[in-house]
Amino acid sequence: MLILVVIVLLAVFVVGAIAVAVALTRSSRRVQANDGAALELYPGHDTSEVPSSWARGHDPEARLHRRMRDSLSALRRSPDFDATYLDTRVQLELAAADLDRRLIATAPLRTEQKQEFLTAADAAVQSLESVVSTMLTGRAPAPAELDVALKRLQA
Q: What does each C-alpha distance from 30 to 16, 55, 112 come to in angstroms?
């Protein structure tokens, strides 16, 4: 009788351990899928080069990446977005992707080696955020403001 109880308890333990392992695996896959989507600047953006740590990281490059992603996402998701500005939105997305590639390239450098670039990148992201906020109010950005933002993003 004691052997039967031990076998049943062992079976329950094994089944429980397997259930926990399966739950952790599913959770991990879900988090990885969410992080992959969180790295996209816009739908379809290739994130294969973007470090996965940027989804939640605190590095300057990661924060700039997320600020660009959030600005472009707000523009895309706005119910008031006028399709007449679609070309402008696409220009901003492509320019942001260009800056993102440069952020990825400079990320491995020491902070003092990339400080000047990060300062310029922050100004570019601020310009992007300014243009997006203008567009979210239903107004077209001033051509000069748009040109400055695009040049800063692509510089």
A: 21, 14, 37
